[in-house]
Amino acid sequence: MFEHVTDHAAKGLARLPEQYQKDDFRALLTSWLVEFQEIEDAFWDLLQAGITTATGARLSQYAVLLGEPRQGLGDDELRSVLLARILANRSQGRDADLHAMLVTFATDFLVEDFEPASVLVTFDAFPGEGLPERIASLVRRAVGGGIGAQTVSPVSEDPLLRFAATSEDVEVDADHGLSDTAQTQGGALCMVRA
Q1: What CA–CA distance (Å, rounded) separates 164 from 159?
Q2: 3-class secondary structure, 2
Q3: DSSP label at 152?
Q4: Is the pLDDT score of 185 beyond 70?
Q5: No. of H helices and E strands in the chain?
Q6: Given CA atoms 159, 160, 163, 164 in this order, what sign does their dihedral have?
Q7: pLDDT over threshold 50, residue 192
């Protein structure tokens, strides 16, 4: 692998032959070696600033370049989306390509093939806020042309609807559309069908 050399000036001056060990030659060589050091440092920064190590604004720049804007995702979630997008872009529609892409999000999922040409991906656990829609889009990108793709994900851990254990224990939560018995706050239950 590559090694970051941080002392080009010292190494270069040490290699200078005896007949050139004069102040004028040393000063000229030092000026060039300082520039080489700056170039190497800049390239080293580029090598170290890949998707797997980038954070914040730099990661957002990669996201824009790959067509996967941040949209409220944290660095870790966005990094998974970007790595999956790269794999989806390179996918040749094989099961192994789809599996490699899905592993960036979770290890507990099931991929089922249905005749004549469709795939169903089912996640066992909720992958995270904002991710189910992004994963579904990436699955459609990763499967072969003409193959239908569906993705099923559990909802978030925060339940969408809550029920009271007894008639005296009515749970009120305006965020989830429920109301108290007088229907003065939250939503109202309009109709229930069996």
Answers
A1: 13
A2: coil
A3: E
A4: no
A5: 6, 3
A6: positive
A7: no
User: According to DSSP H, which parts of 120-163 are helical?
Assistant: 131-142
CB within 8 A of 111, min separation 6: which ones?
95, 98, 99, 102, 119, 120, 121
Query: Would the pTM count as exceeding 0.70?
Result: no
**Do residues 99 and 88 make contact, with C-beta atoms less than 8 angstroms apart?**
no
Helical axes 56-66 vs 75-90, angle rounded to 10° = 30
Spacing of C-alpha 76 from chain mean position: 6
Please tell me the distance from the alpha carbon of residue 16 to that of residue 187, in angstroms, as a whole number: 82
Both tokens assigned to 109: 């999922």
Distance CA 132, CA 138 (A): 10
CA distances from 74 to 26, 95, 97 (A): 50, 29, 25
**Of 26, 24, 23, 27, nearest in space to 14 by CA:** 26
Query: Quick one: pLDDT at residue 191?
Result: 40
